[in-house]
What does this fold into?
Amino acid sequence: MTVNSLLETFPLVLVSSGPFSREVLEAAGLHCRPAKPPLAADWLAARAGPCQRAEALAYFTARAAAEQSRAERVLALETVVAAGGGRTFSRPPGRLEAAEMLRCLAGTRHAVVTGAALLAPGVRLIASDVTYVTLAAISDDEIVRYLASGDWLGIPGAYATPEMVERFVTDVEGSFSNLMGVPVELIDRMIAEAGQHPEAHGTPRWAHSA
It folds into this structure.
């Protein structure tokens, strides 16, 4: 069963901060709206490993979205990139940080980790998916030209755009969709598991609110 068919019986709001992850979801016919994690990624950096960090960001994003929009069922996705030496990157705040990330990740094998949190009546599922990516060397001139495009804005690790993936990713171990911040197989499993809970199909608490 695919995400689309599951959502026919278990509709929910999908929340993601990544611009290309939203494109992937919406191309599949899934409604998705942007959201900003209420926790700063830097605050979590020294307190958790990559999987725990991505899962915590996803959970607090889902909880905030549920409270703000009064949505009954929310699935949030948040991605971080884990490089060697314990360095973890989320979305670069500016061009200098994006350049630093690209120079650190170019020519390496690193992990792209997406946390997913699904909240529904009687349901709280939190999980993560890890994809290992090998990136080719990227010259300084190529980095400068790429940064001038602005395509890196809002992207953890700064490089996971379709063009950059096609040009510089030489190997992917794990879910390819997770590289773009959308672990489709994990989403399938989580929605299927949530749908098994009878309380998740009840009348929304806010259905009759003014």
Q: What stands out?
A: The first strand starts at residue 13 and ends at 16. The chain has nine helices and seven strands.
